[in-house]
Amino acid sequence: MAIMVDNYIVGSFFASLVGLVLLYFFRRNAMAETDKKSDHRRPGVDEIRNDCVRSSTNGEVRPGGGPETDVVIVGAGVAGAALAHTLGKDGRRVHVIERDLTEPDRIVGELLQPGGYLKLIELGLEDCVQEIDAQRVLGYALFKDGRNTRLSYPLENFHSDVAGRSFHNGRFIQRMREKAATLPNVRLEQGTVTSLLEENGTIKGVQYKNKVGQELRAYAPLTIVCDGCFSNLRRSLCNPKVDVPSCFVGLVLENCTLPFPNHGHVILADPSPILFYPISSSEVRCLVDVPGQKVPSIANGELAKYLKTMVAAIDKGNIRTMPNRSMPAAPYSTPGALLMGDAFNMRHPLTGGGMTVALSDIVVLRDLLKPLRNLHDAASLCIYLECFYTLRKPVASTINTLAGALYKVFCASPDQARKEMREACFDYLSLGGVCSTGPVALLSGLNPRPLSLVLHFFAVAIYGVGRLLLPFPSPKRLWIGARLILAEGVRQMFFPATVPAYYRAPSVQ
Ligand SMILES: Cc1cc2nc3c(=O)[nH]c(=O)nc-3n(C[C@H](O)[C@H](O)[C@H](O)COP(=O)(O)OP(=O)(O)OC[C@H]3O[C@@H](n4cnc5c(N)ncnc54)[C@H](O)[C@@H]3O)c2cc1C
Question: Residue ranges of the Squalene epoxidase domain (predicted)?
Answer without folding.
Answer: 220-479
